[in-house]
Amino acid sequence: MRDRRLEGLSARAAGGLIERAIGGAQAGRAECVNFRFTPTDKVIVQRCWPTSRAKGLTLLEVLWVVLILAILGALTVPMTSDSGADQLRAAADMLIADLAYAQVQSITHSDDPRVVVFDSNGRGYRIAASSEPGTPIDHPADHEPFEVIFGQRRAANLQGVTIEGYDLGGDDRIAFGPYGQLDQPTPAAITLAAKGLTLTLTIDPVSGEASVGQIQ
C-alpha cells in the first residue's frame, strides 16, 4: 500500500486526483485519496485503497466522492468580472454545488434530510436540516453556518445577483428524499437575475440533478 499526501491543492487539482483515484481503484491498483480542510480552505489529501480489493467502487465510496466534489465546488467563488452574464454563471455554479451537497447529505442523513431554503428577500439561501429549517447546518470547510448571501463572505463577488423567483412546489425550499429525489413530483426551478439578465436552473424531480438554461 502506498501513501500519498498533498497539501494546498486547488479544487481543480483535487478534482483531478479524485478522477485518477477512481480509475486506479477500478483497475485494482493502490491509490490514496482523502480530504480534510485547513482554516485557510486548503485541501489535505490522504486515503488508500488496498491493491487486493475487487474492481469497482461501492455505493458508499461513490457517494463519498460526490460529496467531496460538491464541497470543493462550494468552497469559494472565483473572481468574476462585473458583467451580469459572468456573475450569473458563477452564482449558478455555486448553487448547483450547494444543491449537490444538500442532496448527498440527505442520503447520508435519511432520518433528517437536508433542505435548501431560499430567502424571501431574494438575496440568498441556506442549507438546513428538515427538522430545523430556520437554522443552517455547519459548512464542512469553515464550520460557519451554511448560508449564502450574495455580496457577502464566499459570495462576496456576486453582489449584483438576486433570486428573481422560484417554483418549488408551493413553498420556499428544495427538499431531498433518502434516495436523492425531490419531495415534489414536478421539476423545481430557480431563476437568478443580474443587471437585467436572467438564468434559470431546473432540478429533475427523480434524479435531483440540476441543469442550467440559457442566459436571457
Put the structure in a nutshell.
Helices cover 26% and strands 25% of the residues. By secondary structure, the chain is of the alpha+beta class.
> Spatial order of the strands in the main sheet?
8-7-6-10
Q: What is the end-to-end distance? A: 52 Å
| Structure class | alpha+beta
> Overall mean pLDDT score?
78
**Shape call:** globular
Radius of gyration: 18 Å
Structure annotation, total helices: 3
Tally of DSSP β-strands: 13
**Regions with little confidence, pLDDT below 50 for 5+ residues:** 1-14, 25-49
What percent strand? Answer: 25-35%
Helical proportion? 25-40%
What does this structure look like?
Helix content is 26%, strand content 25%. The radius of gyration is 18 Å and the shape is globular. Strands 8-7-6-10 form a 4-stranded antiparallel β-sheet, covered by helices on one side. Strands 9-11-12-13 form a 4-stranded antiparallel β-sheet, covered by helices on one side. The protein has 3 helices and 13 strands.
List keywords for this structure.
216 residues; alpha+beta; disordered N terminus; four-stranded antiparallel beta sheet; 3 helices; single chain; 13 strands
